[in-house]
Design a protein that fits this description.
26 helices, Glutaredoxin, 5-stranded mixed sheet, about 625 residues, Rossmann fold, alpha/beta, Arc Repressor Mutant, subunit A, 6-stranded mixed sheet, 17 strands
């Protein structure tokens, strides 16, 4: 390549980057949109590109680099024109992902973590992509492939090498399909039980129409009377949150939908986004009416990029029908929503980190107080609720508070969407009233041979058979929706070690207890798995977990030790069976073979003392 051609290419890239920045008004708060578009276009974000973006947005290059380096889907090294991301969730592993990964490596001639020499394809692992009910799964650029097998991998690799687009793997008529058909061709919704609120037949716009005839204060009263609590895990009273935001002194307020469900084993919002997108937008619009908001953001996790066109179509349809935008429903009520895509960061499920990401920053949690309801997005009063919560709000305005209040369990009203996966016959979505037992849900899902159940996913509670009669409710086993089933053939410590590795990978790194403490916990669990733990190590796990919980800045650190603490409590014999008491003051955790490995490597010979087969 001669210098003139090189200069021409750089000039073309600069023009494309300038156009991308101009599309969002060179707004630094839209940095996520800029960087995602550049990544898709150029397949990486180089230092000169960062400088160009920084100049356009009025930032330093370091500020842009800070955002690029934070998100897993943004890269500072060239990626292939096709990037294949293999889901590395524990469910995918148990479902056969190791064989699928090996098949990809063999077919593509590269290892996981590498890019082919011709720049055609990159192969890498990624954490849970919200498809545990149809594992093993992978993303191929923006296309999702599910229930993969080594044979299917060979077909996929051959098609891609033959010049087919990732879209052609779904259908050769992909471009002619509707956005909804494109989504459902890629992913099955697996709705196993449709309940009385969200997955039953739902009228179009009934809740919003009623809300337009009510005062904002009356809407909030209706939500409060229903007993609706946030469905993302924390369970904060929804009406109370809305009331705080409405009361905050401000000229502008913001509604944000948290569609960044990254908890391993959770995929309920994925189904609602596919099957009830209008209900979601209706719920957000009702919330805007209640608190006096004019601006909305729907934050969609990067792994759900295949739903982008469907959601954009729904937003435009509602604008065209006068249900979004200016003068909604003929009233003096203006509210619109923009779609914000994430880029692969579990921490952005925490509302402060999500707000930071919406502002074009690294997804780091914000210090509290102030709370988002008084100072959130760009310092404005902000309501953040998840997909399920907004959908319930729309149904409450349609059917009335008493209707919702009468379903469920004391303190846990209404229905709940449970994402069931793992060792069961019928993985998928179950909409059921709060208050049913784990045992009843297992029977419905065909998971009666379960030996352990992770309620709430990685950050929830792992229970054993003697606790299967406990209830799924805010006052007993609270969950954002994930119910992961493990039969007696699974190694509990392997599951715990995976969950801890997930938290190590997904920590934002801001605070030391979470950044360092989870690494120590993961290594300690490795000692138990290797048979190198002492009885004292059990106390070490408890003490370190307590320190992380007490001193971490956000919810990730306060829940990350849960896999260890709940299995210590509910599966104590598993830990007791792996520990070795100290002998002659020598801790079992000291492994002489590991200790001299580096010496063997440097000396290029084995040990005459510690290698038993040296003389053979």
């Amino acid at each position: 390549m001669d210098a003139a051609t090189d200069r021409e290419l750089r000039r073309e890239d600069a023009e494309r980057i300038a156009a991308i920045c101009a599309d969002v008004g060179d707004d630094p708060h839209r940095m996520m949109d800029i960087l995602r578009a550049v990544q898709d276009d150029l397949r990486w974000i180089s230092p000169p590109v960062m400088q160009l973006i920084a100049d356009r947005a009025g930032l330093s290059r370091i500020a842009v680099e800070g955002v690029v380096s934070f998100y897993a889907f943004l890269s500072q090294v060239p990626k292939g024109r096709i990037t294949i991301r293999l889901c590395d969730d524990i469910i995918d592993r148990f479902a056969g992902m190791p064989a699928v990964a090996a098949a990809f490596e063999a077919a593509l001639g590269i290892k996981v973590g590498e890019t082919s020499a011709d720049g055609a394809v990159s192969l890498e692992y990624t954490p849970c992509i919200g498809l545990c009910d149809q594992a093993p799964a992978a993303m191929v650029n923006d296309i999702v492939l599910t229930q993969l097998t080594p044979d299917r991998v060979a077909e996929v690799a051959a098609a891609l090498r033959g010049g087919q687009r990732p879209e052609d793997l779904i259908s050769h008529e992909f471009d002619d399909l509707s956005p909804h058909d494109r989504a459902t061709r890629q992913v099955k919704n697996n709705i196993r039980h449709a309940g009385a609120s969200l997955l039953c037949p739902v009228p179009d716009g009934a809740g919003l129409q009623r809300a337009l005839d009510m005062t904002p204060g009356r809407i909030i009263e209706e939500i409060e009377a229903s007993g609706l609590r946030g469905c993302g895990g924390a369970g904060f009273a929804t009406g109370r949150k809305w009331r705080f935001a409405a009361a905050a002194e401000a000229e502008r307020r913001v509604i944000i939908c948290n569609a960044d469900e990254g908890e391993p084993g959770t995929f309920k919002d994925r189904v609602l986004l596919t099957e009830r997108p209008h209900l979601l937008i209706e719920g957000m619009t009702i919330a805007a009416r209640a608190v006096g908001a004019t601006d909305g953001i729907l934050y969609l996790r990067g792994e759900y990029v295949y739903l982008r066109e469907l959601i954009e179509e729904v937003l435009q349809d509602r604008r065209d029908r006068g249900l979004l935008g200016q003068g909604i429903g003929g009233a003096e009520f203006d509210f619109d929503i923009r779609l914000q895509l994430g880029a692969g960061a579990y921490i952005c499920g925490e509302e402060g980190a999500l707000i930071s990401s919406c502002e074009g920053l690294p997804g780091e949690p914000k210090t509290r107080p102030p709370f988002p309801v008084t100072q959130g997005y760009l310092g404005l009063p902000t309501v953040v609720n998840n997909v399920e919560t907004f959908c319930h709000a729309a149904r409450i305005l349609d059917k009335g508070a008493q209707w919702f209040f009468d379903m469920g369990h004391e303190g846990s009203h209404g229905t709940k969407l449970f994402s069931v996966s793992g060792d069961c016959l019928n993985p998928g979505i179950y909409e059921l009233p709060y208050g049913l037992s784990v045992r009843d849900l297992l029977a419905m899902a065909g998971g009666e041979d379960a030996a352990a159940v992770a309620v709430g996913g990685a950050s929830g509670t792992m229970i054993a058979r003697d606790q299967f009669d406990r209830t799924l409710s805010f006052d007993d086993l609270s969950t954002a929706g994930a119910v992961v089933i493990f039969n007696g053939s699974r190694n509990i410590l392997e599951i715990v070690e995976y969950y801890m590795s997930f938290f190590v990978h997904e920590s934002c790194g801001y605070c030391t207890p979470c950044r360092v403490g989870n690494v120590f916990l993961q290594k300690a669990i490795g000692k138990f798995r290797d048979g190198l733990a002492n009885p004292e190590d059990i106390d070490y796990l408890k003490d370190l977990s307590g320190t992380i919980i007490e001193t971490s800045r956000c919810g990730l650190g306060t829940t990350s030790p849960n896999p260890i603490l709940t299995t210590l409590e509910n599966f104590p014999l598993i830990y007791a069976a792996t520990v070795k008491p100290s002998k002659d003051r020598i801790r079992a955790s000291f492994d002489i073979q590991s200790a001299i490995d580096s010496a063997r490597h440097l000396a290029k010979r084995r040990s005459t003392i510690f290698d038993e087969d040296f003389s053979k």
